[in-house]
Amino acid sequence: MSMPSPRAAYNGTGGWILKMKIGVAGLKKLAVISIRSAGKLGTLAACEVDMDTGRILALYTGGARSRCIPWDRVVRVGADALLVDAEDPGGAAPEPCIRF
Known about the structure:
By secondary structure, the chain is mainly beta.
């Protein structure tokens, strides 16, 4: 069985998984979408990284309604959007994010 693309990997069950690489500049342009409301929460503006472990701790959206989303609430990172398990507070003001 030949690999369909250099960016694809065999998943072991007869299918292929497309692998993507994205840089930091590309991440900052991704839409952040809630899987609960299917609404856009904003655009990724920053992320918090634990420098000792190299793990991402949280994501921050930008704009007037900026918010902090813990990394464990990220469901999927795609080519065009980040899907997160987070509520859209609607008209309520979100808690402010602390930028580092």
